[in-house]
Amino acid sequence: MRKKIVAGNWKMNKFLTEGIQLTVDILVELERNPPKHTVILCPPFIHLSELSKVLKECSFIKIGAQNCYYKDSGAFTGEVSVPMLASLGIDYVITGHSERRQLFFETDEIIAQKVKAILAHGLKPIFCCGEPLDVREKNEHLNYVSNQVQKSLFNLSQQEIKSVVIAYEPIWAIGTGVNASPEQAQEMHLFIRNLLKEKFGNESADLTTILYGGSVKSENAATLFSKPDVDGGLIGGASLQASEFMKIVRSLPN
Ligand code: PEP
User: Fold this and answer.
1) Cα–Cα distance measured from residue 174 to residue 99, given in angstroms and rounded to the nearest whole number
2) pLDDT beyond 80 at 238
3) Does the beta carbon of 125 lie inside 6 Å of ligand 1?
4) 75: which residues sit within 8 A by CB, 6+ positions away?
5) Residues facing residue 40 across a β-bridge
6) pLDDT digits (tens, 9 = 90+) for 87-105
7) How far is the CA of 234 from the centre of ligand 1 (A)?
8) Exactly one of 97, 121, 141, 189 is catalytic; which is it?
9) Binding site membership of 234 for ligand 1 (Cβ less than 6 Å)
10) Does the pLDDT at position 193 exceed 90?
11) pTM
12) Residue of 10, 165, 215, 219 best suited for mutating to test ligand 1, as the one with most atoms within 8 Å of CB
């Protein structure tokens, strides 16, 4: 059975003390009734070390980084490598997020290299893909996402793809308050799973977790998560408040 996940992407929010408090609040609440699925917190880099201490004994909350570089070390000012993340016990790394594609000019090829590096060091990529509004309006969204998936994931082996988490995040839904409908999410998730089936076979595709991201809130989470190919969510704004995030975590069926 494939893993179900709710992941919080804090983006460039929360000072360290606030991030620790948010983590403790989530931990205390979840310890009362531990979920069967995985919860991932993706804070800014400077929080990772402290959060890994806070969550050391906890099996159901994992930590993710929001980015990495694909080289192991060297003269890459401002970058953080996957071995550095591994040394802190980080489990996941978000890559291909639309904000990094748009604001930091990350191409499909760069993202492919990051995915490879993340896997090479035993971490799991949360690979984001998704179309802008004009592409959806032209009804070219399936082709667009197919291209992204092929360019960054189709060089992986059948074994490697099993460690990849995919997050479908339509750009028009990120931070806008307008979520994809459950039907739109299901259509794309099934499409992505079928792409994986053709390339990697049924077993790998069936085991791949595909998350939906884009304006998920406590009010819409349950209907989105009820779709058969929606295996959880990548949550931005709504992950910054423990009570709201917890409601979303509890909306995911075990
Ligand atoms: C995101 O950026 O990954 C995201 C899903 O953001 P939001 O939930 O705020 O739309």
Assistant:
1) 9
2) yes
3) no
4) none
5) 7, 62
6) 999 999 999 999 999 999 9
7) 7
8) 97
9) yes
10) yes
11) 0.97
12) 215
Residue 211 has pLDDT above 90, yes or no: yes
Are 235 and 248 in contact by the 8 Å Cβ rule? The answer is yes
State the distance from the centre of ligand 1 to the C-alpha of 73, rounded, in angstroms.
30
Cβ 169 under 6 angstroms from ligand 1: yes
> Is residue 244 flagged as an active site residue?
no
Q: Which of 99, 106, 131, 169 is catalytic?
A: 169
Q: For the segment 1-28, what is each residue's pLDDT rounded down to a tens digit? A: 899 999 999 999 999 999 999 999 999 9
Alpha-carbon distance of 8 to 217, in angstroms, equals 12
The letter for the amino acid at 64 is: G
